[in-house]
Amino acid sequence: MPSPEYRVWDVNNDWPFPREVMLSCLPEVVRILEWAHAEGIEQRTPGWYARRNQLTVSGSILNDIVGKGYADKRKDSSGKGTDGWNTCFLSKVGLDPAPFNGNKATLHGQKYEDEAFDKWCKQEGMHGFTMGLLQHPGYDYMGGSPDGLTARGNVVEIKCPLNRWIKVGEFPSYYDLQPRFYSHLMGMQDQDSVFLQYKPGEVFGFEVLDHVMVPFNPEYTLGAIKTAENFNTAVQEARKTGVVPESVLEFRRFAVKRRLKYDFGRTCPEIGWPDEYLDDLFKQGEPPLSDAGMDEILEECMMS
């Protein structure tokens, strides 16, 4: 029987894998695949969304928590804490004034991520694997869904940017903890990981399939994990007591103003922004949290 062609295999839908595929894997990879099949939660299923919402820390927000996420590239506009830490904190305690539920760019990434990984595996001559959500074996509040894992033991972080420009051969620092976090979670922290960028030709008129090796860095990763522990402790305390640090609330007020100013300027560009109204609003307490509440504030601003 000929060996299966190099491709991406999914632990939820393709298990058990052909014997030749398993023999191509490092023993540590076989252990991870068996674990992911037994305990992982398939992506974008009701159970996946439910468990993901219960986690305080995941690979996708670790850069933000330590102040090295994309939001922190523009520095902190509030003067209190980092944009990333505060935004994540507000989200975890149900106070995010502008929850992010995806957009055109994230849908584009979801559409082309599997295609990118499959093309790269064929190009590199090895098998790759996708899996669902994995909980950290040592921390019940920590986990996530890695983009991919190779038979050689490399975690793969895949980006298919629609609008953001990433130079070929470059690994942006605001992503640097994502693949390292998943290597740590899987117990593969002695392995380098892979950053894979893909721009499909059918969208851009030219194709980019570029990968950069991300060096193993245990000290840096463990330092971020320690910061994440502190973040979780603060979140759990706020959930228990209902008391949010003033520095976080100050950032939230800034974020509410930023969102409303954008919406108001877009809706009524000919009318000046009523800062006095918002100042009075904040004196009355924290503004409403829902989109409906935001719309109500906007309507009152337009009438004032």
Written overview of the protein:
The chain has about 300 residues and is of the alpha/beta class. It has a domain at about 10-60 and about 100-225: Lambda Exonuclease, Chain A, CATH 3.90.320. The chain has helices at about 20-25, 25-40, 45-55, 60-65, 85-90, 105-125, 175-185, 200-205, 220-240, 245-265, 275-285, 290-304, and strands spanning about 10, 55-60, 130, 135, 140-145, 150, 155-160, 195-200, 210-215. Strands 1-3-6-7-8-9 form a 6-stranded mixed beta sheet, sandwiched between helices. It has a 3-stranded mixed beta sheet with strand order 2-5-4.
Strands ordered across the widest β-sheet: 1-3-6-7-8-9
Shape: globular
Stretches with pLDDT under 50, minimum 5 residues: 74-81, 288-292
The CA-CA distance between the termini, in Å, is 77 Å
Largest sheet: 6 strands, mixed
Number of strands: 9
> Helical proportion?
40-55%
CATH fold topology of one domain: Lambda Exonuclease, Chain A
CATH architecture of one domain: Alpha-Beta Complex
Listing every helix as H and every strand as E from the N terminus to the C terminus, the arrangement reads: EHHHEHHHEEEEEHEHEHHHH
Rg is: 22 Å
Structural class category: alpha/beta
Oligomer: single chain
Q: Which class of one domain in CATH terms?
A: Alpha Beta
How many helices? Answer: 12
- What portion of the residues fall into strands of 2 or more residues? 5-15%
